[in-house]
Amino acid sequence: MIRNICVYCGSSSGDDPAFLAEAEALGKGLAAADIGLVYGGGDNGLMGMVARSTLQAGGRVTGIIPEFLVQVEQARGSVGLEGAEIIVVPDMHTRKHMMFDKADAFVTLPGGIGTLEEIVEIMTWSQLKRHSKPMFVIDINGFWEPMVKLLDHMEASGFLHNPDAARPTFVSNAADIMAAMGSFQSA
Questions:
Q1: Virtual CA dihedral for 63, 69, 72, 73, nearest 10 degrees?
Q2: Within 13 Å of residue 126, how many CA atoms lie on the same side as its CB?
Q3: SS3 of 18, please?
Q4: What is the rounded CA–CA span in Å between residue 151 and residue 167?
Q5: Could you report the per-residue pLDDT of 95-144, keeping only the tens digit for each?
Q6: Nearest-angstrom CA–CA distance, 177 and 144
Q7: How far is Cα 150 from Cα 135, in angstroms, rounded to an integer?
Q8: Contact between residue 147 and residue 137 where contact means Cβ atoms under 8 Å apart
């Protein structure tokens, strides 16, 4: 059963309005499905949008943020995040482990190097059989297509030892995530 989903995404909005629209749709979908959001604790960019839209739709939000990022990723303080549980931790390692522990599944929206690092770590842990939690990537307008090609190349070159476990499920929008969550909810 999926009670909480960890969402990895950018602390920026990116250059495509569809990124923010899908972050908003994902937040609303999580709230409607009574699935809690676990995320990086920021109020900017896609992070802020998914958190605010979850809260505005009556959902549960847990943000986990390291001390050194509070000033950067919570520029507006708690404005718009009223009702969220914000946990301040000492470092990135604690943040990532706590997010992992609180999540039953992982969803990745567009983002930068930090977002990439987070989903790749979860993929690695899955390949190494450290977890079997569902992993999804929302490939909005082909944003993650280079990653798909890289994974294909790694597999063809013999470097993905357990490709089924290492590969997240790629979908095109938040509605696809919510449809997939339905099958896990009834399991």
A1: -20
A2: 24
A3: helix
A4: 8
A5: 999 999 999 999 999 999 999 999 999 999 999 999 999 999 999 999 99
A6: 16
A7: 17
A8: yes
Cα separation, 169 vs 123, in Å, equals 11
Task: Please state, as a whole number, how many other Cβ atoms lie within 10 Å of the Cβ of residue 58.
Answer: 11
- Evaluate if pTM is beyond 0.90: yes
- SS3 of 88, please? strand
Are the C-beta atoms of residues 27 and 57 closer than 8 Å to each other? yes
Over residues 33-62, the pLDDT tens digits come to 999 999 999 999 999 999 999 999 999 999
How long, in residues, is the chain? Answer: 187
Q: What is the mean pLDDT of residues 158-183?
A: 89
- Contact between residue 49 and residue 7 where contact means Cβ atoms under 8 Å apart: no
H/E stretch holding 149 reads helix 145-156
Task: Name the 3-class secondary structure at 87.
Answer: strand
Is residue 155 a contact partner of residue 163, using CB atoms and an 8 Å limit?
Answer: yes
User: What is the pLDDT confidence band of residue 179, given thresholds at 50, 70 and 90?
Assistant: confident
Q: Among residues 96, 171, 176, which one has the least CA distance to residue 137?
A: 171
